[in-house]
Write a structure and sequence with these properties.
Elements: H1 19-47, E1 48-57, E2 66-71, E3 75-85, E4 98-107, E5 113-119, E6 123-128, E7 134-139, E8 151-154, E9 163-167, E10 172-191, E11 194-201, E12 205-207, E13 213-216, E14 221-224, H2 227-234, H3 238-268, H4 274-282, H5 289-300, H6 305-312, H7 328-356, H8 360-368, H9 373-384, H10 386-401, H11 405-411, H12 419-429, H13 433-457, H14 461-464
Antiparallel strand pairs: 1-2, 1-14, 3-10, 3-13, 4-5, 4-10, 6-7, 7-10, 8-9, 10-11, 12-13
Length: about 475
Amino acid sequence: MTTEPAAPARTRRTQRQWAPYLLILPSLIYLAIFFAWPMVRAIRLAVWDERALLTLRAEASTGSSTTGALPQGSQVILLDRQSIMAAAADLTGGETLTEVWFRIEGNDPAGSRVEGWTPESRIRVRVTDEQGAPVEGTVRPKLGAAADPLTSLVVDPNETSAVRGKLAGGAVVRIQEQATLEVWFQVQGQRDERTLTGWAPSRLLQVYGDGVSGRVDQGDTGQFTTTYIERMLNDRFFRPALSTTLLLMVIIIPVQFILAIIMALVIQARLKFNTVFLSIFAIPLAASDLAVGIVWYSIFTQSGYLNSILQGLGLISASQPYLTADTRHWIIIAVWLAEVWRATAIVMVIVVSGLQAISQEVLEAAEVFGATLWQRVRYVILPLLKPSLQVALILRTILALQVFAVVIALSGGEVVTVLANETYRQYYTLRNMNVAAAYAALILLISMFTAVFYLRMVRSQEEAGP
């Protein structure tokens, strides 16, 4: 008896699930627009000088070939000058040298009608229209026996253009058009012991009073640089700002975590008036950074609540100054207390959410085996809280690096300063975006380093592996 061969099993094609990708797409777009792009821009501002090099051209034109590039600040010799047509945006610079040319029409000495361009300096305007534009004038006579008495009219508004005709001094002309030209200089300078020669626009040069020398005022090509980082490192406020920021991180974060864990355990214990405790603990979450700084300023100022209470108790005879240049340590203490009071509730919320994820059976089993409260916290609760502690540590470190408004309210940003305050000072007060970007990049690097450190050191058993 023969049997038919079995039909091959039909393989089921797995269908790709696009729903998870679509759900995560808005988050990726948000991170790209509001995190990745600003971060890249800030780092680029810190290490890229957009005006570092001035490109030299073979001819007085932006479209001509390049002959080299001179660094910003280089000394140059002016060999020649030439005026060319330029875009309106290129004529708005404060150092831009311009020339005005007129397209005129008049009769030459032979009586023939000629038309062409000539510099404004060769025409004396006699009549203007209602808008003030010149419409009629006369040719200025040339002085000097050796000078050509006739004024040349050229095809294009350029000294090198072909001559179309000539007019005698005093000839009446009609002004048809007016053009503003940008002056370019042929310059010669040194770079890396090489002599470079080429044309550059006047708006990028600073011409000295002798008219034959100058310097590169700004470039038109960027390059990588560490200048702004060096300026940040050499800034007289850099070391105090960095040391104060790191000090605040060291003294704020441990205290906040201890208090947050205690507060979370109190709430998790479901004591009587549990919701009252939660409401009291969460009060600082409703206050802004600046409001918290003002509240603690009213406490520590010389006529504030602290001095009033101490005088009322008879502990001091006169008001003590706490927020002055001579009592810098008190300002640090005031900032520490304000930050601990303000942001501990944030850590508490994260810890409470982690505690609620711990199985109650695990805690009851530890209690049945005779574990004390401290033993349950140390050997059961804290190990299971590691994922939540990672998030809380990273978030609180970032917030500690961003301490700004409280410092401004308590010290004005002068006696005690932090990295965020120096970023603001460089950007807003000194108008130095590149050095401000260097400060911001440093804050970003510290945040990323501490985040990686926390993720490596505070790991759960599953993350640590066997």
